[in-house]
Amino acid sequence: MWKFVVKRLLLSVVILFFVALILYTVMRCIPTSFVDSMARQLSMQPGAKSFDDWKAQLTQVYGLDGTILEGFFKWLSHAARGDFGDSWYYTIPVVEKFKEVIWNSFILGSIAFVLELVIAIPLGILAARKQYSGIDYTVTVVALIGISLPTFFFATLLKYVFSIKLEWLELYGLVSRYYDQLSPLGKMLDMGEHLIMPVATLVIVSIGSLMRYTRTNMLEVMNSDFIRTARAKGLSEKTVINKHAFRNTLIPIVTLVGGSLPGLFAGAMITEQLFQIPGIGYTSYNAMTNGDINFYMFYSVFLALLTLLSTLIADILYAVVDPRVRIS
């Protein structure tokens, strides 16, 4: 087991290196340039230098005067020492800005993730047990609606109904205007009220695929020979489903759920944009569109690292979920 883990970690370092190189190359090649934007703003001031002069000066200041490989290895040498520099767009250290917004995304993503598991897996199992019944068709329709609905459409619909028409919920933001004047309980309730529509958006658009996946795998397991043997031995249906069928269904679900864990820290970029929630997705989008290489590189490499670790954890959990799986 330990030999397997060490090999995977060494392989992850190699993968992470090439992922970072590709991301840096893409950021250097996108049309949006932070240096161009800053040079244009500075050149428009009274008595300022020309655009070309400002661009040449800023290019040197931000370390973009060399080739892409030179710039990447310069960034990598600092990042390896834990120095990720300052955010060009937000003008504060990258790590400080990351800590400021990451927990907003984590709270939003965690609530949506737990609700997705609590709703999708039991309904998927129920639909498999009641195959071709009204419950099965209802679950299938709900799942297909969730898969088909675009995030921006469903979020806009929620805002139109609950914010504009009914005026029950706030249209934008994470907290209200008078948040600082509220009691601790009032602050919690205020934030919870603002999270209702974003969480509902994430749950509805994500629940369908997990629900269908659970149903399909549960049906496959329930038609297996060992399930028929368990029933022939006189075991109750509850024991057959919960002890035998569900545990085998967990094996493919672990892969899907394990791949979703980085999403807790990734931030829901579209949802955060639509509801203007100051999370990591909203922040990184603004950084990327303004050419802030330092912040976006830290964010992207952080997500790549989480993805590699979650894949490793999912592989190890196979042996925990199913004793027949062993790592040689």
Task: Describe this entry's structure for a reader.
The chain has helices at 2-29, 34-43, 51-61, 68-79, 94-129, 134-148, 151-165, 184-222, 225-232, 237-260, 263-266, 269-275, 280-289, 293-321. The protein is mainly α and 328 residues long. It has a domain at 100-291: MetI-like (MetI-like fold). Helix 2 (34-43) packs across helix 3 and helix 5 packs antiparallel against helix 6. The radius of gyration is 25 Å and the shape is globular. The chain starts with a helix and ends in a 7-residue tail after the last helix. The mean pLDDT is 85.
Short description:
This protein is an all-alpha fold and about 325 residues long.
Topology:
Elements lengths: L1 H28 L4 H10 L7 H11 L6 H12 L14 H36 L4 H15 L2 H15 L18 H39 L2 H8 L4 H24 L2 H4 L2 H7 L4 H10 L3 H29 L7
| Rg over alpha carbons | 25 Å
Low-confidence stretches: none
Overall pLDDT confidence: 85
CATH superfamily of the domain at 100-291: MetI-like
Helix content: over 70%
Reported for the largest beta sheet, the result is: none
Shape: globular
Quickly name the level 1 CATH class of the domain at 100-291: Mainly Alpha
* Terminal-residue CA separation: 7 Å
Reported by name, the CATH topology of the domain at 100-291 is MetI-like fold
CATH architecture of the domain at 100-291: Orthogonal Bundle
DSSP, total strands = 0
User: H/E element string?
Assistant: HHHHHHHHHHHHHH
Structural class: mainly alpha
Strand content: under 5%
Number of DSSP helices? 14
Key structural traits:
about 325 residues; mainly alpha; MetI-like fold
